[in-house]
Amino acid sequence: MVEILKTSSVGIVKPQAAKFEGPLNLECGFTLDSFELVYETYGRLNKNRSNAVLICHALSGNHHAAGFHNEDDKRAGWWDEYIGPGKPIDTEKFYVVSLNNLGGCHGSTGPISENPTTLKPWGNNFPSIRVKDWVETQARLADRLEIDSWAAVIGGSLGGMQVMQWAIDHPSRIRNAVVIASALKLSAQNIAFNEIARQAIRADPKFAGGNYLSMKSIPEEGLALARMIGHVTYLSDDAMALKFGRELRSGSFDSNFSDGIEFQVESYLKYQGKRFSGQFDANSYILMTRALDFFDLARNYNDNAVEAFSVAECKFLVVSFTTDWRFSPSRSQEIVEALIAAKKNVTYMEIKADEGHDAFLLPIPRYFQTISAYMKGIETN
Amino acid sequence: MVEILKTSSVGIVKPQAAKFEGPLNLECGFTLDSFELVYETYGRLNKNRSNAVLICHALSGNHHAAGFHNEDDKRAGWWDEYIGPGKPIDTEKFYVVSLNNLGGCHGSTGPISENPTTLKPWGNNFPSIRVKDWVETQARLADRLEIDSWAAVIGGSLGGMQVMQWAIDHPSRIRNAVVIASALKLSAQNIAFNEIARQAIRADPKFAGGNYLSMKSIPEEGLALARMIGHVTYLSDDAMALKFGRELRSGSFDSNFSDGIEFQVESYLKYQGKRFSGQFDANSYILMTRALDFFDLARNYNDNAVEAFSVAECKFLVVSFTTDWRFSPSRSQEIVEALIAAKKNVTYMEIKADEGHDAFLLPIPRYFQTISAYMKGIETN
Predict the structure, then answer these.
(1) Which residue of A has its CA nearest to B328?
(2) Residue from the list B204, B241, B269 with its beta carbon closest to the beta carbon of A195
(3) What angle (nearest 5°) sits at the alpha carbon of residue B199, between those of residues B196 and B200?
């Protein structure tokens, strides 16, 4: 593992912004007259413009997938272990594009942006976004960068949904689809967890019906709760047991902390929740979980995933993790089964990992090697 | 199933109250000078006083386990399918005692009771309660009812923890221990879910730091959220899929409800949460989940469950359910392994059921038959 991490970094990167004028007709029926996307790129586009790779982020991700923003930056991008020179998504071979999705809160147009009609932040009036909308905006970004076809589109979880949507919406523009820890659609249980997270946000009086920005308040407690729910469900029972066991903050069963927090796991959750609530916009979080809930690849294809995939032209790599119970291996297997039935070229890898859904972000050797080997096999001439 | 449900009821039952004077030294170090327990009984105590069965309730349970409270009562007690004439816990054979635990909110002394010192409700000043305290108070109730030894002590989930504690705290007073969907102690994941539920309650401004009763407010939203978390995690993924799938309230993906609730499962959760928040006290809920978190049967026995069980004299029936992921079969198997190593008489049954943890409350045929057969084998002479 140490050896893996010793490989070098893309170094200091600078986010860029692309403004798109001209109407964007969203799935919900609303039309955005213009929008902006913030993105980063790593590596160099080759002469044939054929080595571009698109990274699609998940629920709480953003465009900063690799490298650092300045000399003092202690925290690398969220997928830095995977993107860089000599890494699985090798920036000496590929030109990697990573964007903040529309509706996000890290620079791309979203609920915290100014609504040009009201000259106030959109807030909860920002239109509802679907995965299909993201793919459409990503295609416009590809146009802007003059990328006709992606060597690969890669994403985990909600990111994997965007990858599948790419394969059927723009079959000629994607040569490899890497779908990690994802699903054709969410289960009722998964929707339920998302709804509880949204309720937690909405129940916070500082949410103010979504108008918190104009009230200069932030629903920190609600957002922290939402994050805690995500955190626990994205980890496996075993991972939590390994990490915390039943360790007490005090070491003793007899003390009572005034905040009522007595187990290490509680203290950790509260810390993580609080940290997140200072970094993420509540309306964005609701919007992103909604996009997750509503994703249903086969919906416009008679609820038949085989039919949905029939137009795809790319190769697929599907990856799942044994202890991931929110996007379990059986969900990935449904994708694989549909792809096989649709006579597509698909490789499937189920990775033994203790870390639950979070595994998709981590440098687990077998997973690391799988992505690495697959990416090495991609032609970029 | 219909045939099972056709068996008759214990009819109309009347809760009784028992007041206990004299100090109760709690595990947390606090001493209660007196307390009251509310309970119901079904069936008749035999001449030898040897046919008594104690029912221990779980997190949100109470003393009303069977029958009805009046002619118009449409809702039977929470375990009515299992308790009654001809039912698995046959009231023609057994004298069944079911109480509301100390710290509860259905009549027994708890956070909504008056603190004799302040003449105001205890609220969040009610002392912290452990499973061991419940067993002690239940033993005092047994003394009051002149029951030297229980033919059986039965409980699911948190109730099962009380049953195990009985077996080691009062080995001569319990002849059969029926431990259903329980564990020697909670996992970190389980503690984490409980903590999120507590945070949801505490984050509700109407909770007012636990002093809501004196402010004449009720933290309904927080309690509803806590219940939703419980509800989702006590059901299996499959059970939710069967019950709701991804059904939309509107039947259409295109509409937007003003409350943001678009899937049936969301609507159901919100309804259940709201209903619960009108029936349960928030401080009680926190107290009960705390008792769950802190339970650790082996803690006072060098963390060795075999040593803990060594003093037990009773027979054990341990039951688990295949899709229960909060108290999974492997947790029950740990109980069984420790009992075998301690050379105790134990029967184990893993029931195939789709309903997750909730299965322990339901009339699932194989489970129903297991309890029935086991109870038939108990001698009450």
Answers:
(1) A237
(2) B269
(3) 85
